[in-house]
Every structure is written in C-alpha cells, then in structure tokens.
TrEMBL record:
Membrane topology: Multi-pass membrane protein
Record-level GO BP terms: siderophore transmembrane transport
SUPFAM superfamilies registered for this protein in UniProt: Porins
Localization of this protein: Cell outer membrane
GO cellular component: cell outer membrane
Annotated TonB-dependent receptor-like beta-barrel domain residues: 231-643
GO molecular function: siderophore uptake transmembrane transporter activity
Protein name (Swiss-Prot/TrEMBL): Iron complex outermembrane recepter protein
Assigned protein family: Belongs to the TonB-dependent receptor family. Hemoglobin/haptoglobin binding protein subfamily.
C-alpha cells in the first residue's frame, strides 16, 4: 500500500470512529434491562478518593449487570468493555489483559483488595476467573490507591465480590452454546441483623470453539472445531460475616477453583507445542475486618492464604498420547508441575481526626513461594520471596468542591530461598522501590468532575524474571531491579442531563528500567535486563445517550501510542485504536434487542509481523416476563457472537472463534 492510500485509509477510519462512536459511560445496564440481586461487598472496595459516592476515573467500573447484559462468562471479556483495555492471547492459551499498554504483571489483579496473581510470574489466566460471585470489577489506571500495595506500575484490577442484601436471595443461571458449551451457576445469600452468609457455585465446560469458515486449514489445524481447545472450570465460593454493630464487620471467605484445559497448537510452522493442563487449581482463604477504635479512627485487616497448583503435560504430537521426554529437569519427563503458595496480610489505620483530612496508614506483608516438582513429587526448584510495604495516603478537602489526594509508599523485596537442582544460585541482596502520587479533583461545576493526577509507580521483578533459564536458553539475572513509571492523566466527566453523559481523558506514561529480553548476551543465550525505556500516551472518550426509554446507544474509543525509546523493537500485542459500540432497543417492556460492535486496528506481534485489524458484531435478544413467577423473576437470552463469522486473531498462529450461538436462562429470587 502506498503512502497516499494508507493516509486515506487512516482518514476513513477516523471518520468512522467519529460517526459511529457512542461510548459507554458504563451505565449500560439498568434495572429495567437486567434484574440481579447483587450488592457489592463494601469491605472489598478500594477507593482512590475519600468521597465514596464519586467516580475515581473514567471507565473504572464494570458492574454485575453489565456482565450479564453482554453475556460474558469470564472476567477478561468483561474488562474488554472498558476504554483503555485491550485483550490478547499468549502461547499458553491464556487470555491476556492490557491496561493502557501495561500487562497483568504491571496492573495486578486483586479479589476484594487481596492480590491473586500467580507468584512465580505475576500473571493470571483471565479465562479461568468466572463471574458468578463477582459484583463489580474496579480498574484503576495509572493513579491507584497505595492501599493496593506493591507492583501497581500501571494501575490495579480489583474483583469485588457480592454481599447479600435481604434475608433470603439467590440467582440461578443455566446456559448452553455452540461447540458443546454448557454452564451453570447458583448463588444464594442471607442477610440478618448481626450476620450474613452466602454461597456461589459455578460450572463452565467447553468442547472447544469453532473457527471461522474462512479459516484456511494448515498442517496443525484442519478447521471446524479448534484442535485441543477444550476447557473445564468449576468454582465454589463461601462467605460468612459478622456485623455486631453499625460500624464493625468481620468476614471470612473461602474460594476453590478447579480447572483443566487444552492448548491449541499454533497454526504456523515454528514452535509447535502439543500441551495440555490436566489441572489448573487455585484455593484461597481470606479474612477481612473493619473495626472502630475511636470516634475518629478505624482499623482494617486483610489476611490471606493462596494455593496455586497446576500441571502442564507436553506431548510429541497432536494425538496427545506420548509425553515428550527431551529437555531437562521436570521437562525431561514431559510433565511440568507447579506447587505455589502465598501468605500475606495488610493493616490499614484510617483517621479523620485532623480537620479536612482523611489519612490512611497502610502496612503490607506477603510471601511468594514457587516450587517445581518432578514426576515423583520431589522439588527440583524452590524460590521464595518476602515483600514489605509501608504507605501513607492523605485526602485533603481544600474547599467545598476541591479535593487533593497525596500518597507515598516504600516497598521492599527480600529473597528468602533460592534452590534449583544443578544451578548453584547465591541468595541475592534485598532491594527497594518507592512510589509517590498526587491528584487534584474539582467538582465545582454541576454534574461535572475535572481531575489531574501524577503517579510515580514501580514493579519489583518476579521470581521468573530473575531466575528462569527458559529451558536452557537464558542466563538468570538475580540482580534485576524494579521497573519505574511516571503516569500523568487529565480527565473530564460530565452528565449533561438524564439522557446524555460524556467522559474523556488524556494520559502519558514514561517507563524506565523496563525489564526486557536482551539476545546473545553470552553466545546464543539471552538474558532479562533493565534496559527498556518506553513511552505510552493516548486518549479515551466515552459517551452514553438514551434519548427515549426504549433506546440506548453508547460505546468507547481508545487511542494508544507506544514507543520503545531504547531500541527499534516493536511494542507487541496492543492495537493503536480500539472502538466499542452498543445499541439497545426495547420495543416492549419485556423484550430487549442488543447489538455490540468491537473494532481493533492492526497490532504488531513481532518486529516484522503485524496482524490485520478486525471488526466483530455480537447480537442478542432477551425476554423478561413482566410478572414474576412464584419462583422469582425469569430472564431468557439467546444470541450470536461474531455474527459475520470474521476470521481474526489476537496472536500470531492462534485464530479466534468464528460465529457461535448461545442461549441462557436466569432466575432471580
């Protein structure tokens, strides 16, 4: 394509954005469209501002209603509703989420303010986190509360659980979909004067997913049902709480996730992997409390224990019968077994004793332990870190309409154990990182908020960053230092009237000491080093318009530019433009007709390969009887995802699903 035609194409795309751009101010779902019993668990919410009834940033919340309205079954798809968020896949068939260009190691995931990312590499597979017990998803971009603790280089993602609001309430979901998908979820809860209890169970199993009819078969993929794309996830979540008075609350939660999945092989000719995970399990116990100490002080405690266990089996071919026995360590048996443990706690003292000040003093402690087991159950690798964080946050009321938010934190990483068979590691030194931030929020204009934030953030290196030799192709680097970033943002939010709202923001992030791979450090061996200097900037716009009660229109647009200032390497897996539109029509009180459009521009997947952009359309119809039955309120939904059967990919060699139908029934009582 010549420069002239490329420029014309870009202009046409920009015109398309302007004309079709409706942008969800994340008020897409209303009580009339989705009827759920969910109420957020207030102890699990992390607020940037002291005033809890005001939004923190644009596109910072995805509600339970929205997750149901758009028929999302996992957290990753739900996050994709937001501006500034993009999805990708990796070679392990894991859904990756990027927030303004930052990956999940730099924008970690929390449940009710408790970190849940895998301790070895800092990632999670967003496909494995179903939504049955999720009340809302908070996303802080760039500027995030120091209450989260360490490693929030680009922000934080917080999954807020449910809490019952009535003496007896519940919800049942049953669904089927193309390619043998079946799912079910049950929630039941009870709120009483001095206690509450709830239980959530969910099941989601797929034989795989169908490829587009436009997909051209290769030597590793014959089309139709994607090879080795099956998955199965079950989840049980229990919560019990005590509320002895109007201010104090004590809550104990237990979550057990069991998963298994296949890893579709690449459709290309290089690095073909025949992998399966017979189990990908996570078990958590956590305690959260809020206690009033004096008239002006409260104390919040979070304590948790996490168990991560998974096994990866590597096979010789697509028959998945013979384990691949070449390699070293546990890989020599064709089995890679991880046995990881996390223990931690945080203590927050909040005080409003000083006039016009809301001060929080926060202490975090966390241990990350990673073990790799051989086929006999013996540990051939064991790494353990300790992390400490001390932070202070002060929200200062400068006047009726002006709030100043200040935060400072110091994080410490202390290696505890370093052991690997055949690799005589020495224990590296401790290291530290400091965060500081300032935000100014102005509400002096009716139904409008203006804000400016600056946040200096850090990410300490993971165990994998420092110690992994990646099957003998890398030299370990135990002395890796923390990544650092300064995030700038200016935002504007307004609600013109009951029908029309607009949010927009511009942002810039400068990253120093970014941990990147450096090739041929010693012979043909590579190494992870602090060499990256990356700049990311862009804008987000959101718009929501409901001219009549029967019509809603909205969406969001993100422009994101990323450059590596250290060398000419491309920043991969992230589109420069992302557009989302939705249109909801209610021809009657009981019927919803909804279309959802997503468009992503081209994205680099290596220094010399760029994947085409794509546009997909989803459509669904929902029927909700006007009168409740004796059992409760029913809602029936059916629809089609990727209506045009678009053949597209988020990663090279890993095509996405083609046209697939679904049906779902929900009973709320």
């Amino acid at each position: 394509m010549n420069k002239k035609s490329s420029k014309c194409s870009h202009l046409v795309y920009c015109f398309y954005v302007v004309v079709t751009m409706g942008i969800p101010g994340l008020v897409m779902a209303t009580e009339s469209t989705v009827n759920t019993t969910e109420q957020p668990f207030q102890l699990g919410i992390i607020h940037i501002q002291a005033e809890q009834d005001k939004p923190d940033q644009i596109a910072s919340i995805v509600t339970n209603e929205q997750l149901h309205q758009f028929n999302f079954s996992n957290v990753g798809d739900g996050l994709n509703l937001l501006s500034g968020v993009s999805l990708s896949n990796n070679a392990r068939n894991e859904k990756m989420v990027y927030v303004r260009g930052f990956d999940a190691r730099q924008v970690p995931v929390f449940i009710d303010g408790i970190p849940v990312y895998v301790p070895y590499d800092g990632y999670i597979d967003f496909n494995r986190f179903t939504i049955g017990d999720v009340s809302a998803i908070q996303v802080a971009k760039g500027f995030s509360s120091v209450s989260y603790g360490a490693n929030t280089l680009g922000g934080a993602i917080n999954l807020v659980s449910r809490k019952p609001s009535r003496p007896l309430e519940g919800q049942i979901d049953i669904g089927i979909a193309d390619a043998g998908e079946r799912q079910g979820a049950l929630y039941i809860g009870s709120l009483n004067e001095y206690w509450y209890a709830q239980a959530t169970a969910s099941y989601l199993e797929r034989d795989g997913f169908k490829l587009s009819s436009d997909f051209v078969p290769t030597t590793t993929e014959d089309g139709g049902l994607r090879n080795n794309s099956y998955s199965k996830d079950t989840k049980l979540a229990l919560k019990f709480g005590l509320t002895p008075n109007q201010t104090d609350e004590y809550s104990l939660s237990y979550i057990k996730q069991d998963g298994e999945k296949g890893n579709p092989p690449t459709t290309g000719n290089r690095s073909i992997r025949y992998w399966q995970w017979p189990y990908w399990d996570k078990e958590s116990v956590y305690f959260i409390s809020n206690s009033t100490i004096t008239e002006h002080e409260t104390l919040k405690l979070r304590a948790y224990h996490d168990r991560y266990d998974n096994e990866l089996n590597s096979f010789t071919d697509g028959q998945y019968n013979v384990l691949k026995t070449s390699g070293q360590g546990s890989v020599s048996t064709g089995r890679s077994i991880y046995h990881d443990r996390v223990n931690g706690a945080s203590l927050t003292l909040e005080s409003n004793r000083l006039p016009n000040h809301s001060i929080s003093l926060v202490t975090h402690y966390k241990t990350d332990e990673h073990q790799e087991l051989d086929a006999t159950g013996e540990a051939n690798t064991r790494f353990k870190d300790q992390q400490w964080s001390f932070a202070v946050e002060d929200n200062i009321d400068l006047g009726k309409d002006l709030l100043l938010s200040l935060g400072f934190a110091r994080h410490s990483l202390e290696p505890d154990t370093v052991f690997s068979v055949g690799n005589p590691y020495s224990l590296p030194k401790s290291q530290h990182a400091k965060d500081a931030q300032i935000g100014l929020f102005y509400d002096g204009i009716a139904n409008t908020q203006l804000y400016v934030t600056i946040a200096r953030k850090s990410r300490l290196p993971t165990l994998k960053d420092r110690y992994s030799q990646r099957l003998g192709t890398y030299i370990e680097n135990p002395d890796l230092a923390a990544e650092k970033a300064i995030n700038y943002e200016m935002g504007y939010q307004t609600k013109f009237n009951e029908q029309l709202s607009l949010n927009t923001a511009i942002f810039l992030s400068d990253i120093k000491n970014k941990i990147q791979s450096v090739a041929y450090v010693q012979g043909d061996l590579s190494q992870m080093q602090n060499v990256g200097q990356v700049q990311m900037y862009g804008t987000e716009i959101e718009f929501n318009y409901q001219p009549w009660h029967w019509l809603s229109y909205g969406g969001n647009y993100t422009y994101l530019k990323l450059t590596d200032q250290h060398d000419a390497n491309k920043i991969t897996d992230i589109p420069q433009h992302k557009l989302i539109n939705y249109l909801l029509i209610k021809p009657t009180e009981t019927l919803d007709i909804q279309t959802f459009l997503e468009r992503n521009s081209r994205r680099w997947v290596s220094n010399d390969l760029q994947l085409n952009g794509y546009q997909i359309v989803n459509m669904q119809i929902a029927y909700q009887p006007k009168l409740k039955s004796q059992f409760g309120q029913w809602r029936f939904t059916t629809g089609v995802n990727n209506l045009t059967d678009k053949n597209y990919a988020l990663a090279d060699g890993f095509p996405s699903a083609g046209r697939m139908w679904f049906s779902k029934a929900t009973l709320t009582f």
